[in-house]
Structures are given as structure tokens and as C-alpha cells.
Amino acid sequence: MKSAFTLLLVIGAAGASQLGCSDDAATPDDGQGGSSSSSSTTATGGSTSSTGGAGGGSTAASTTSSATTSSSSTTAASSTAASTTAASSTAASTTSSGTGGEEPLGDELPMEIPTPTNGDGEIRTETTVLKNAAHGGQDVYDFNNQKIGVNNTEDCDDGEGQKTVFEVEDGVTVKNLIIAGGLPGGNGIVCKGDCTLDHVYWEDVCEDAATNSADGATMHINSSIALHSADKIFQHNAKGGSTTIVTNSYIADFGKLWRSCGDCTANGGPRHLIIDNVRVDRVKTTIAGANQNYGDTVTITNLYVKGGYDADDDKPKICQEYRAVTDHMGESEKLHGGASQWDTATCRVSKSDVKSW
Length: 357
Description:
By secondary structure, the chain is mainly beta. The chain has helices at 77-80, 82-88; strands spanning 41-42, 122-124, 128-130, 140-150, 166-168, 172-179, 189-191, 195-202, 210-212, 218-222, 225-227, 232-236, 242-260, 263-264, 271-291, 297-305, 317-323, 325-326, 333-334, 347-348, 354-356.
């Protein structure tokens, strides 16, 4: 199978997020966009860097959290040294030991979350909005491995309503950030347009780690770690050929790595997932759940499963196809009895693409 990076990625303008998503009867809370925009405050928070140089975007640096002032001491040099910082705290280029027997591609696949540079971390009172340069903010925010959460009061397992930690505007890159685990992790990060989450670490996913919420947009997660989720890690609500890309990352102890919304308001598609050079461990349900009836696609290369894929028992599930619904008109239904699908129009993955480590 050709590398996932030969695919043409569809990049589009930001659209409205779809609300009220669910998956199937077994997981009724399968993911709204959860942007909590009504309670959000415009803020850069933490150390930031700009493609225009240090200090760019200072006009958008207002926050409602008194704890944010400590972050201003970080210099723009941390942005240019991002890969060096992360490399020192990760196990780079680890080697596969199971079937397949090949090394993961790329030179950086993190396996340990770095020690936070701000001690026990910071819990903010409201959602932090990371504005892009066009709106008075910056296009790159480097948090220098600070740990940040939000004062979320909704239980992680209670479906929807959790506060979003960061709302990210179109074109923004977020680097070297640790999302606090458990309740302060809230609804994680919501991308409102094209976004890149590079060396972002989720200690203990609450509702979702990150949500793709803008029609036609691409959300790229690279060299990141996400741990401990009862349900899904990455939620995909955006339609219109939107794409989620996960590369060079480690995901462990989760229900689904990615789910295309099974029951969003005005639901539809297509939605696309690309996975390349990703290690997974303790998969409870599936790697990917895609909506066949909306034209979704899942392309997987170089997926490394701890202990390998058990073909006899079909565990863990790799790519499941669904028939989605809209506006709560019925329930999203697993197709083919929920069995992993291989080399189909929806599930563009071969068994040779799944290796052991």
C-alpha cells in the first residue's frame, strides 16, 4: 500500500461544528464537538511563539486565569528547539519486535510524557481560545511542556457538557503541551479549522482528546501521546471531505482511537482518517469506526499493535464500518457484524499494514 502521505489532503474553510453525536447503543456518548464557546475566553496562555518572531500576537494575550502570568517568561527559542526538547524526553525510533519486524518510520515516536515545566500544572477557569495571526493571535503556540487543564465540573463518563481546554482557530499549530489528566482534561482540544497538534500529550483523556469540528478542515496529530480513555480518543464531527491525520504517535488504554460521528445534527460526510507509524496498546474496542453510508475512508499504514493482531479472534478490531444516522433518527449501526474490514472502499487497510511490537 502506498504511503498515506501520497494522498491528496482536502483543506477547506472552517465550518460550524456538529452537535449531539452518538455512536451506537453500546456507546451512546460518542462525541459532540464540545467547544463550550459560550464560556470561553480569548487567551494565548503559556509560552507562545510566532512565525513572525518572538512576542508576536501579544495583543491577544489577555486571559481570565491569574495563573497564566508565570508562562510569559518562556522565549521564542523554545519553538525552534521543539524537536530537541521532545526528543530528550521520549524513546525515539523504538524497534518493532513482533510480526512484521520492521522499525517504525520517522525519527521520533514518543513513548513517555515529559515532566511538566510548570510543576503540578495550571487549572484555568475557562476555555482558552488560541487565535490565529489573522485575528490578532499567532500561528504557532509553543507551551514548552507546560501542563494545563480547565475547571471542568462535568463527570468524564457522563456524556456531553465537559468544558473544552483549548479552542484552536484555523491555521494554528500547538506544540509541546501537556493536557492535564482526568476531570481537568475536560473536552480536550477542539480545532475550529485546519490545525496541527505537535508533541501534545494527554495524561488521562476525559471526554475526548481532540475534536475535528470544521467542515473541510484537516486536523493533524503528530509525535503525540494519548492515554486512558473509556471511549474514544479523537472525535471527528466535521464533514465536507475533512481529514484527521495521526502520525508518529503512541496511544494506549482506550476504546476507539478515532470515530466518525455516528449521530450528529445534520450528519453527513465524507470524513477521512489517515494513520501512519502509530503504536497502540490495550485497545478496548477498535482503532477506527467509519461511516460507510457517508463515504468515509480510513487509510492505515505502519500500525504497531502491542502483542499483535489476533486474526482468529479479530482482536483488536482495526477498522469497523457503520451505517450512521442524523438528528437522532435511530441508532448508528455496526455493519458486517462489527468485524474488521480489510481493503474495502471504506477501510483502506491491509493485514500487512498491521504489525506487532
